[in-house]
Amino acid sequence: MKHKNTMPALATPAGGLVLPEQLAQQAADAVRELLAEAAAANTTRSYAAALRYWAGWHQARFGVELTLSVSEAVVIQFLVDHIQRKNKTGLVSELPPAIDLALVSAGLKARLGPLKLATVVQRVAVLSTAHKLKRLTNPCESASVRTLLSRARRAAVKRGERPTKKTAITRPELEAMLATCDDSLEGLRDRALLCFGFASGGRRRSEIAAADLRDLRKMGEDGYIYRLEYSKTQQAGVKADSTPDKPILGRSAEALTAWLEAAGISEGAIFRRIWKERVGPALLPGSVATIVKRRAALAGLEGDFGAHSLRSGFVTEAGKQGVPLPAVMAMTEHRSVAGVIGYFQAGAAEDNPAARLLK
Protein backbone atom coordinates (compact mmCIF):
# COMPACT_ATOMS: atom_id res chain seq x y z
CA MET A 1 0.00 0.00 0.00
CA LYS A 2 1.61 3.24 -1.15
CA HIS A 3 0.98 6.53 0.59
CA LYS A 4 0.15 9.56 -1.51
CA ASN A 5 3.08 11.48 0.02
CA THR A 6 5.61 8.73 -0.65
CA MET A 7 8.74 10.09 -2.32
CA PRO A 8 9.43 8.66 -5.77
CA ALA A 9 12.30 6.20 -6.13
CA LEU A 10 15.27 7.56 -8.05
CA ALA A 11 16.64 5.65 -11.00
CA THR A 12 20.36 5.78 -10.23
CA PRO A 13 21.20 6.04 -6.51
CA ALA A 14 21.75 2.32 -5.83
CA GLY A 15 25.08 2.38 -7.66
CA GLY A 16 26.41 5.05 -5.31
CA LEU A 17 25.44 3.33 -2.08
CA VAL A 18 27.51 4.42 0.88
CA LEU A 19 29.43 1.77 2.75
CA PRO A 20 28.98 1.39 6.53
CA GLU A 21 32.16 3.36 7.24
CA GLN A 22 30.82 6.25 5.15
CA LEU A 23 27.90 6.90 7.46
CA ALA A 24 26.35 10.34 7.01
CA GLN A 25 27.64 12.84 9.54
CA GLN A 26 24.33 13.54 11.26
CA ALA A 27 23.63 9.84 11.58
CA ALA A 28 27.12 9.41 13.05
CA ASP A 29 26.37 12.16 15.55
CA ALA A 30 23.19 10.36 16.52
CA VAL A 31 25.17 7.15 17.05
CA ARG A 32 27.54 8.94 19.43
CA GLU A 33 24.62 10.30 21.44
CA LEU A 34 23.08 6.85 21.54
CA LEU A 35 26.42 5.44 22.74
CA ALA A 36 26.30 7.81 25.69
CA GLU A 37 22.69 6.89 26.43
CA ALA A 38 22.99 3.12 26.04
CA ALA A 39 25.65 1.63 28.28
CA ALA A 40 24.99 -1.96 27.18
CA ALA A 41 27.37 -2.93 24.38
CA ASN A 42 24.78 -5.11 22.62
CA THR A 43 22.28 -2.23 22.58
CA THR A 44 24.94 0.13 21.29
CA ARG A 45 25.84 -2.19 18.41
CA SER A 46 22.18 -2.69 17.59
CA TYR A 47 21.47 1.06 17.47
CA ALA A 48 24.56 1.78 15.38
CA ALA A 49 23.69 -1.01 12.90
CA ALA A 50 20.14 0.31 12.56
CA LEU A 51 21.32 3.85 11.78
CA ARG A 52 23.92 2.55 9.30
CA TYR A 53 21.12 0.72 7.54
CA TRP A 54 18.95 3.84 7.46
CA ALA A 55 21.85 5.83 5.98
CA GLY A 56 22.59 3.21 3.32
CA TRP A 57 18.95 2.70 2.37
CA HIS A 58 18.35 6.47 2.16
CA GLN A 59 21.38 6.97 -0.07
CA ALA A 60 20.29 4.13 -2.34
CA ARG A 61 16.64 5.16 -2.48
CA PHE A 62 16.96 8.93 -2.91
CA GLY A 63 20.56 9.54 -3.98
CA VAL A 64 21.34 11.85 -1.05
CA GLU A 65 22.79 11.38 2.43
CA LEU A 66 20.54 10.84 5.38
CA THR A 67 20.09 13.96 7.51
CA LEU A 68 17.94 14.50 10.58
CA SER A 69 15.18 15.29 10.81
CA VAL A 70 13.67 12.79 8.39
CA SER A 71 10.32 13.51 6.80
CA GLU A 72 7.20 11.48 7.43
CA ALA A 73 7.14 10.56 3.73
CA VAL A 74 10.61 9.01 3.96
CA VAL A 75 9.60 6.85 6.92
CA ILE A 76 6.48 5.69 5.08
CA GLN A 77 8.62 4.82 2.05
CA PHE A 78 10.90 2.81 4.35
CA LEU A 79 7.88 0.92 5.67
CA VAL A 80 6.37 0.05 2.30
CA ASP A 81 9.83 -0.94 1.06
CA HIS A 82 10.36 -3.36 3.92
CA ILE A 83 6.95 -4.58 5.11
CA GLN A 84 5.34 -7.34 3.09
CA ARG A 85 1.69 -7.14 2.13
CA LYS A 86 -0.59 -9.56 0.34
CA ASN A 87 -2.05 -8.83 -3.09
CA LYS A 88 -3.32 -10.96 -5.98
CA THR A 89 0.18 -12.24 -6.78
CA GLY A 90 1.15 -13.12 -3.21
CA LEU A 91 3.36 -11.36 -0.66
CA VAL A 92 5.08 -8.25 -2.04
CA SER A 93 6.97 -5.17 -0.92
CA GLU A 94 8.29 -2.08 -2.71
CA LEU A 95 12.07 -2.41 -2.24
CA PRO A 96 13.59 -2.47 -5.74
CA PRO A 97 15.77 -5.56 -6.37
CA ALA A 98 18.76 -3.39 -7.36
CA ILE A 99 18.65 -1.56 -4.03
CA ASP A 100 18.19 -4.82 -2.15
CA LEU A 101 21.31 -6.20 -3.84
CA ALA A 102 23.25 -3.00 -3.16
CA LEU A 103 22.39 -3.16 0.55
CA VAL A 104 23.58 -6.75 0.75
CA SER A 105 26.76 -5.95 -1.19
CA ALA A 106 27.53 -3.08 1.19
CA GLY A 107 27.25 -5.38 4.19
CA LEU A 108 24.20 -3.55 5.53
CA LYS A 109 21.90 -6.51 4.99
CA ALA A 110 22.68 -10.19 5.55
CA ARG A 111 20.70 -11.58 2.64
CA LEU A 112 18.33 -10.68 -0.17
CA GLY A 113 14.64 -10.57 0.59
CA PRO A 114 12.35 -9.00 3.18
CA LEU A 115 13.38 -8.14 6.70
CA LYS A 116 11.50 -9.57 9.65
CA LEU A 117 8.75 -7.28 10.86
CA ALA A 118 10.44 -7.13 14.28
CA THR A 119 13.60 -5.80 12.60
CA VAL A 120 11.65 -3.11 10.76
CA VAL A 121 9.92 -2.07 13.99
CA GLN A 122 13.28 -1.91 15.82
CA ARG A 123 14.83 0.26 13.10
CA VAL A 124 11.94 2.69 13.19
CA ALA A 125 12.25 2.80 16.99
CA VAL A 126 15.97 3.65 16.72
CA LEU A 127 15.26 6.45 14.24
CA SER A 128 12.59 7.72 16.61
CA THR A 129 15.08 7.74 19.51
CA ALA A 130 17.60 9.66 17.39
CA HIS A 131 15.01 12.37 16.72
CA LYS A 132 14.06 12.56 20.40
CA LEU A 133 17.69 12.94 21.45
CA LYS A 134 18.12 15.85 19.05
CA ARG A 135 14.75 17.34 20.07
CA LEU A 136 13.56 17.25 16.48
CA THR A 137 10.05 16.75 15.14
CA ASN A 138 9.60 13.00 15.22
CA PRO A 139 8.08 11.52 12.04
CA CYS A 140 7.95 8.06 13.63
CA GLU A 141 5.22 9.23 16.00
CA SER A 142 2.92 10.48 13.27
CA ALA A 143 -0.52 8.92 13.02
CA SER A 144 0.14 7.49 9.56
CA VAL A 145 3.37 5.74 10.59
CA ARG A 146 1.83 4.33 13.77
CA THR A 147 -1.22 3.12 11.86
CA LEU A 148 0.90 1.40 9.21
CA LEU A 149 2.95 -0.43 11.86
CA SER A 150 -0.18 -1.43 13.76
CA ARG A 151 -1.85 -2.80 10.63
CA ALA A 152 1.35 -4.58 9.62
CA ARG A 153 1.47 -6.38 12.97
CA ARG A 154 -2.18 -7.36 12.67
CA ALA A 155 -1.72 -8.63 9.10
CA ALA A 156 1.34 -10.68 10.14
CA VAL A 157 -0.65 -12.33 12.92
CA LYS A 158 -3.49 -13.15 10.50
CA ARG A 159 -0.94 -14.82 8.22
CA GLY A 160 0.14 -16.98 11.16
CA GLU A 161 3.45 -15.22 11.76
CA ARG A 162 4.63 -15.17 15.36
CA PRO A 163 7.77 -13.74 16.97
CA THR A 164 10.44 -16.43 17.14
CA LYS A 165 11.58 -17.29 20.65
CA LYS A 166 14.39 -19.49 21.88
CA THR A 167 13.35 -22.81 23.35
CA ALA A 168 13.12 -22.52 27.12
CA ILE A 169 15.57 -24.51 29.23
CA THR A 170 13.45 -25.64 32.17
CA ARG A 171 14.67 -28.08 34.81
CA PRO A 172 14.45 -31.30 32.70
CA GLU A 173 16.44 -29.72 29.86
CA LEU A 174 18.97 -28.26 32.27
CA GLU A 175 19.46 -31.62 34.00
CA ALA A 176 20.07 -33.27 30.63
CA MET A 177 22.63 -30.63 29.68
CA LEU A 178 24.43 -30.85 33.02
CA ALA A 179 24.71 -34.61 32.54
CA THR A 180 26.94 -33.97 29.49
CA CYS A 181 29.48 -32.04 31.59
CA ASP A 182 32.40 -34.20 32.77
CA ASP A 183 35.16 -33.32 35.26
CA SER A 184 37.51 -31.79 32.70
CA LEU A 185 38.17 -28.05 32.92
CA GLU A 186 35.72 -27.48 30.09
CA GLY A 187 33.11 -29.68 31.72
CA LEU A 188 33.50 -27.97 35.09
CA ARG A 189 33.28 -24.53 33.47
CA ASP A 190 30.20 -25.39 31.43
CA ARG A 191 28.43 -26.96 34.43
CA ALA A 192 29.16 -23.87 36.54
CA LEU A 193 28.11 -21.53 33.74
CA LEU A 194 24.79 -23.28 33.15
CA CYS A 195 24.01 -23.43 36.86
CA PHE A 196 25.03 -19.80 37.44
CA GLY A 197 23.10 -18.53 34.42
CA PHE A 198 19.94 -20.37 35.44
CA ALA A 199 19.98 -20.21 39.24
CA SER A 200 20.90 -16.53 39.56
CA GLY A 201 17.71 -15.51 37.79
CA GLY A 202 18.19 -16.42 34.14
CA ARG A 203 21.10 -14.16 33.37
CA ARG A 204 21.63 -12.74 29.91
CA ARG A 205 24.68 -13.86 27.96
CA SER A 206 26.32 -10.45 28.36
CA GLU A 207 25.82 -10.64 32.13
CA ILE A 208 27.32 -14.14 32.32
CA ALA A 209 30.33 -13.07 30.26
CA ALA A 210 30.80 -9.97 32.45
CA ALA A 211 30.52 -11.87 35.77
CA ASP A 212 33.51 -10.93 37.93
CA LEU A 213 34.88 -12.44 41.13
CA ARG A 214 34.87 -9.06 42.87
CA ASP A 215 31.06 -9.19 42.85
CA LEU A 216 30.88 -12.70 44.34
CA ARG A 217 30.91 -13.30 48.07
CA LYS A 218 30.53 -16.41 50.17
CA MET A 219 27.29 -16.83 52.09
CA GLY A 220 28.02 -19.20 54.97
CA GLU A 221 28.60 -22.79 53.89
CA ASP A 222 25.53 -22.98 51.69
CA GLY A 223 26.32 -20.77 48.77
CA TYR A 224 27.19 -17.37 47.34
CA ILE A 225 25.67 -13.97 46.79
CA TYR A 226 26.41 -12.49 43.38
CA ARG A 227 25.97 -8.73 43.14
CA LEU A 228 24.69 -7.85 39.68
CA GLU A 229 26.08 -4.35 39.37
CA TYR A 230 25.40 -3.93 35.66
CA SER A 231 22.48 -5.35 33.72
CA LYS A 232 20.13 -4.21 31.00
CA THR A 233 17.91 -2.66 33.70
CA GLN A 234 20.79 -1.40 35.84
CA GLN A 235 22.92 0.25 33.20
CA ALA A 236 25.65 2.57 34.38
CA GLY A 237 24.73 1.98 38.00
CA VAL A 238 21.09 3.09 37.66
CA LYS A 239 19.18 1.57 40.55
CA ALA A 240 16.43 -0.84 39.54
CA ASP A 241 13.37 -1.68 41.61
CA SER A 242 14.79 -5.04 42.73
CA THR A 243 17.92 -5.87 44.70
CA PRO A 244 21.12 -6.51 42.72
CA ASP A 245 22.02 -9.37 45.10
CA LYS A 246 21.34 -12.76 43.50
CA PRO A 247 21.72 -15.92 45.61
CA ILE A 248 23.53 -18.97 44.18
CA LEU A 249 22.76 -21.95 46.36
CA GLY A 250 23.04 -25.73 46.64
CA ARG A 251 24.21 -27.59 43.53
CA SER A 252 24.78 -24.34 41.69
CA ALA A 253 27.14 -23.12 44.42
CA GLU A 254 28.96 -26.47 44.43
CA ALA A 255 29.44 -26.33 40.66
CA LEU A 256 30.77 -22.77 40.88
CA THR A 257 33.20 -23.68 43.67
CA ALA A 258 34.49 -26.69 41.74
CA TRP A 259 35.17 -24.56 38.65
CA LEU A 260 36.89 -21.72 40.51
CA GLU A 261 39.16 -24.11 42.40
CA ALA A 262 40.05 -26.23 39.36
CA ALA A 263 40.75 -23.13 37.23
CA GLY A 264 42.69 -21.38 39.99
CA ILE A 265 40.68 -18.19 39.59
CA SER A 266 41.23 -15.73 42.42
CA GLU A 267 40.33 -12.48 40.66
CA GLY A 268 38.82 -11.15 37.47
CA ALA A 269 36.38 -12.84 35.13
CA ILE A 270 34.59 -15.90 36.49
CA PHE A 271 33.90 -17.62 33.18
CA ARG A 272 36.85 -17.92 30.82
CA ARG A 273 38.05 -19.45 27.61
CA ILE A 274 39.98 -22.70 27.80
CA TRP A 275 42.88 -23.48 25.47
CA LYS A 276 44.17 -27.05 25.69
CA GLU A 277 43.35 -27.36 29.39
CA ARG A 278 44.77 -23.88 30.01
CA VAL A 279 42.55 -21.10 31.36
CA GLY A 280 42.47 -17.98 29.21
CA PRO A 281 40.73 -14.59 29.23
CA ALA A 282 37.03 -13.89 29.81
CA LEU A 283 34.42 -15.46 27.58
CA LEU A 284 32.70 -13.25 25.03
CA PRO A 285 28.89 -13.05 25.11
CA GLY A 286 28.70 -14.99 21.86
CA SER A 287 30.74 -17.80 23.41
CA VAL A 288 28.12 -18.17 26.15
CA ALA A 289 25.47 -18.77 23.51
CA THR A 290 27.75 -21.28 21.76
CA ILE A 291 28.24 -23.24 25.00
CA VAL A 292 24.49 -23.41 25.62
CA LYS A 293 23.82 -24.61 22.06
CA ARG A 294 26.61 -27.18 22.22
CA ARG A 295 25.45 -28.67 25.53
CA ALA A 296 21.86 -28.83 24.26
CA ALA A 297 23.06 -30.69 21.17
CA LEU A 298 25.19 -33.09 23.24
CA ALA A 299 22.13 -33.80 25.40
CA GLY A 300 20.12 -34.65 22.28
CA LEU A 301 17.58 -31.90 22.92
CA GLU A 302 15.39 -30.71 20.08
CA GLY A 303 14.63 -27.03 19.69
CA ASP A 304 16.14 -23.64 18.95
CA PHE A 305 18.42 -23.12 21.93
CA GLY A 306 20.52 -20.09 22.77
CA ALA A 307 21.71 -18.10 25.76
CA HIS A 308 18.24 -16.59 26.21
CA SER A 309 16.93 -20.13 26.76
CA LEU A 310 18.29 -19.97 30.31
CA ARG A 311 16.35 -16.78 31.00
CA SER A 312 13.06 -17.92 29.53
CA GLY A 313 13.53 -21.34 31.14
CA PHE A 314 14.04 -19.85 34.59
CA VAL A 315 10.78 -17.92 34.39
CA THR A 316 8.90 -20.87 32.90
CA GLU A 317 10.17 -23.25 35.58
CA ALA A 318 9.25 -20.75 38.29
CA GLY A 319 5.71 -20.69 36.91
CA LYS A 320 5.60 -24.48 36.98
CA GLN A 321 6.69 -24.55 40.60
CA GLY A 322 4.25 -21.83 41.66
CA VAL A 323 6.83 -19.22 42.61
CA PRO A 324 5.12 -15.81 43.04
CA LEU A 325 5.69 -13.47 40.10
CA PRO A 326 7.21 -10.63 42.22
CA ALA A 327 9.84 -13.04 43.54
CA VAL A 328 10.66 -14.12 39.99
CA MET A 329 10.98 -10.53 38.78
CA ALA A 330 13.28 -9.69 41.70
CA MET A 331 15.66 -12.35 40.37
CA THR A 332 15.34 -11.67 36.64
CA GLU A 333 15.41 -7.84 36.90
CA HIS A 334 12.34 -7.56 34.68
CA ARG A 335 10.82 -4.14 35.33
CA SER A 336 7.64 -4.75 33.34
CA VAL A 337 5.15 -7.51 34.05
CA ALA A 338 4.38 -7.58 30.32
CA GLY A 339 7.95 -8.62 29.58
CA VAL A 340 7.87 -11.69 31.81
CA ILE A 341 4.24 -12.77 32.06
CA GLY A 342 4.17 -14.80 28.82
CA TYR A 343 6.89 -17.19 29.99
CA PHE A 344 5.47 -17.30 33.51
CA GLN A 345 1.97 -18.14 32.30
CA ALA A 346 3.32 -20.81 29.97
CA GLY A 347 4.98 -22.48 32.93
CA ALA A 348 1.91 -22.25 35.14
CA ALA A 349 -0.59 -23.32 32.48
CA GLU A 350 -0.37 -27.05 33.15
CA ASP A 351 -1.22 -26.51 36.84
CA ASN A 352 -4.18 -24.23 36.16
CA PRO A 353 -7.08 -25.78 38.11
CA ALA A 354 -9.54 -24.51 35.47
CA ALA A 355 -8.02 -27.01 33.03
CA ARG A 356 -9.15 -29.94 35.18
CA LEU A 357 -12.87 -29.28 35.41
CA LEU A 358 -13.73 -32.59 33.73
CA LYS A 359 -11.46 -34.69 35.94
Describe the structure.
50% of the residues lie in helices and 8% in strands. The strands form 3 sheets. It has a 3-stranded antiparallel β-sheet. The protein has a two-stranded antiparallel ribbon with strand order 1-2. The chain contains 14 helices and 7 strands. β1 and β2 form a beta hairpin. The protein folds into 2 domains: 146 residues, DNA polymerase, domain 1 (Orthogonal Bundle); 184 residues, Orthogonal Bundle (hpI Integrase, Chain A). 36% of the residues are buried. It is mostly helical.
Provide key terms for this protein.
mainly alpha; hpI Integrase, Chain A; two-stranded antiparallel ribbon; 359 residues; 3-stranded antiparallel sheet
What's this model, at a glance?
It contains 14 helices and 7 strands.
Secondary-structure blueprint:
Blueprint: H1 25-37, H2 41-62, H3 72-82, E1 85-87, E2 90-92, H4 97-105, H5 117-133, H6 143-158, H7 171-178, H8 185-199, H9 205-210, E3 216-219, E4 223-227, E5 245-249, H10 250-263, E6 272-275, E7 278-282, H11 285-298, H12 308-320, H13 325-332, H14 337-348
Antiparallel strand pairs: 1-2, 3-4, 4-5, 6-7
